[in-house]
Design a protein that fits this description.
By secondary structure, the chain is α/β, with parallel strands linked by helices. It folds into four domains: 29-127, no CATH class; 139-165 and 227-388, Nucleotidyltransferase, domain 5 (2-Layer Sandwich), CATH 3.30.420; 167-225, no CATH class; 410-472. It has 17 helices and eight strands. It has helices at residues 2-7, 35-46, 49-57, 71-83, 89-98, 100-106, 117-126, 129-145, 179-189, 197-206, 264-281, 300-308, 330-343, 346-369, 380-404, 410-438, 444-472, and strands at 153-162, 171-172, 217-218, 226-229, 235-246, 252-259, 290-292, 312-314. The strands form two sheets. Strands 1, 4, 5, 6, 7 and 8 form a six-stranded mixed β-sheet that branches. It is globular. Residues 466-473 have low confidence and may be disordered.
Length: 473
């Protein structure tokens, strides 16, 4: 009857709606809120996050005037960028305006407008880099309060961040010529007086020594960026981001963003010093005793410097010919052999396995799923500000996962969808088996075994669903 009645119905047409002039507040739509962001708001509120950032940002605002965006709201929007995997401020602003759950997380009422991306840019330019570093240390203090920080063994690794500048915009430092002008000069030297664009491309493909150097070329729009090879093998203007990770807790204890042509051995001492300072500011009483790095950090000067600071290094050696120590300081030789002896032990191999698993995993979270691989701002300072807050968001996600068992916000929908699809697959399999047994194709004993397996699978799925519903409230 219902199906016949539906067949007789005419197609419905969507009519444009005109908003009412006055709407009672009680009639406004209000979502139930996201359990992850609700818990995160509770954690931040219990530790006085909003009061802390307001005191921190007060010197950068004048007394009186029109109130601006609350600092707590601004930093929450940056956290949303990490948790939702949004790399641009425009995308963050649009996402916050579109979601009722994120409005509740930001503390923006239903009748208010969420901050626009231009306001976020003004606040970022107004606040100094030290403010973002102190917010990072505040989050690190939350991990210390829950007993998650260890800080004795620190792993270092680095990656490249694509800058907001194009390779075709680079110019020569000595003459100011761009790439086309440079190729025209080479064409004139080859006897081509009026080369076309096709001639320039052909000349560029065939000429030897096509590599470009940071000593000769720069970007006029972003002088802090450097020509570097990215993780996918392409060449872009980029920065270098370095993480110092606590191997026991997997927390990022320090992060620095520097020039992409700076070697690992040059940037490591500053990152380790910052890591030690952040641990002290976060309230930890533990000092750094061990540093674990990959082959790119194997440098005699670095190992000697860390040995003077009573830090044991675990750095694999590069393939190289036999060393001669006649022209090198004695401290370098001692540090080199001490590092080699440590790497030959089981502990050295174990720590490097942990480094490859846990330290490099932070880049996967922050740069790939966290939307931090591409920078949409210019300048090393701006890149450092945003990357530091994304690392703070990573530490917040680590805190909620290890203390309350809550994963990232986007994992909730995936868990439910996977469980639902698995349930449909098991149901279809059971129906197919029943159909086959009616024709006598499957023995009864095999059918009972398959049904028992399907029952156990469905039971496991319902347990997963029950846990998911209990966490979502």
């Amino acid at each position: 009857m219902v199906i016949d009645r539906l067949k007789d119905m005419a197609i419905g047409k969507r009519k444009p709606q005109q908003d009412e002039l006055f709407i009672p507040t009680a009639k406004l739509a209000a979502g139930p809120g996201h359990p992850f962001y609700a818990k995160l708001n509770q954690v931040l509120a219990d530790d006085g996050f909003d009061e802390f950032v307001e005191r921190l940002c007060a010197p950068y605002y004048k007394d009186g005037g029109r109130p601006g965006i609350p600092p707590g709201t601004y930093f929450r929007m940056l956290f949303i960028g990490y948790f939702e995997g949004i790399d641009s401020q425009r995308g963050i602003a649009w996402r916050c305006a579109d979601s009722l759950a994120l409005r509740r997380f930001l503390g923006v009422s239903w009748t208010e407008d969420t901050p626009v991306h231009a306001s976020m840019t003004i606040i970022r330019q107004r606040l100094s880099e030290s403010v973002f570093d102190k917010v990072f240390v505040f989050v690190l203090g939350l991990l210390e309060q829950k007993g998650l920080l260890r800080g004795k063994t620190i792993a270092l690794d680095a990656t490249t961040l694509e800058a907001n500048a194009a390779m075709k915009s680079i110019v020569r430092k000595d003459t100011g010529e761009d790439w086309k002008e440079y190729l025209r000069g080479l064409a004139r030297a080859e006897g081509i007086e009026h080369p076309s664009d096709e001639d320039l491309r052909r000349l560029d493909r065939k000429r030897p020594n096509k590599k470009v150097s940071n000593e000769e070329w720069e970007s006029p729009g972003d002088p802090d960026s450097r020509i570097a090879k990215m993780k996918d093998g392409t060449t872009h203007l980029a920065y270098k981001a370095e993480h110092a990770v606590d191997l026991r807790s997997e927390a990022i204890v320090a992060t620095t963003v520097t020039y992409a042509d700076k070697s690992d051995a040059q940037s490591a001492p500053a990152t380790l010093t910052l890591a030690g300072a952040n641990l002290v500011l976060a309230g930890s009483q533990v000092e750094i005793e061990e540093a674990v790095m990959d082959k790119g950090y194997h440098d005699n000067g670095l190992m000697s410097e860390l040995a003077a600071r009573d830090i044991r290094t675990y750095i694999p050696e590069k393939r190289q010919p036999h060393r001669r120590w006649t022209d090198k300081p004695e401290e370098h030789e001692k540090a080199f052999h001490a590092n080699r002896n440590r790497m030959r032990r089981d502990k050295g191999w174990r720590l490097n396995r942990w480094r490859s698993e846990r330290c490099e995993r932070t880049f996967a979270h922050v740069c790939e799923t966290g939307g931090g691989r591409r920078m949409w701002t210019r300048g090393q300072t701006n890149a450092s500000k945003l990357h530091t807050l994304r690392c703070a968001g990573y530490n917040l996600g680590l805190l909620l996962r290890k203390v309350w068992g809550m994963g990232k916000p986007r994992s909730w929908a995936t868990t439910r969808a996977d469980a639902f699809l698995s349930f449909l697959a098991l149901t279809a399999m059971t129906a197919a088996m029943l159909y086959a047994v009616t024709d006598g194709l499957i023995p009864l004993e095999v059918l009972l075994l398959l049904l028992a397996t399907a029952f156990l699978g469905v039971q496991a799925i319902f347990k997963c669903q029950k846990k998911c519903h209990s966490l979502t409230g």
